[in-house]
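step=predict obj=Amidase domain-containing protein n=255
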Amino acid sequence: TEAVFEAVEKYDPVLGAYISTFKEQGLAKAQEVDDKIASGGAVGGLAGVPIVVKDNMCTTFGATTCASKILENFHAPYNAATVEKLLSADAVIVGKTNMDEFAMGSSTENSGLKQTVNPWDTERVPGGSSGGSAAAVAARLCFAALGSDTGGSIRQPASFCGVVGLKPTYGRVSRFGLVAYGSSLDQIGPITRTVADSALMMNVIAGHDPADSTSVDEAAAPVCDYLEKLDEPIEKLKIAIVPEFVAGADEEVQK
């Protein structure tokens, strides 16, 4: 955790991935996890893992700005359901990440607070609207992140930054505490370096939440073990390709 904060202090002034950091709280949580392990106590599935969340998810610690001057000093009275699940899994939330203001954009150039650049080429954008989360993961300024996706806002910046992004099936992950862009489409999901890491994150954040009326009842659709699913055969899976989606793309991209 200390190494992550050191990296953020060194590199984020250029990248602009973070809106806020929680150093005192993060180090205290990391010490709490270390103490649990040392005493032989049980720890959660993300014990000690430094994680960031997009700044449109409510937290009682730090402001929830949605990258807007309007909410620059807004402090939520409760945590988003996904934030609570991360904390219950003993994750260390080290900060909140930049985004297009109120998620209205796809490049993270439209933040009201700062611009995020792509860690692979600082002359290029990281995508958006979860560009801060994707850039932080790609730059190794955290181990995993949460983003939100309406029409590509997890998947597109993950692609731009060379990491893994997953938009879960609608209703699988609670949206309680998310400042919505499009409530009928929004989903919270992971951005990670590997598919296995995304599966691990899904094992923590997925599940029914009575506080979210669009959350799927687990009796109707039980939550699987996503890590176990990675070992299942894929021969019968089908992938649909819509040619119009790549029309006009560079030849290199089309190939």
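step=describe
The first helix runs from residue 2 to 15.
step=end
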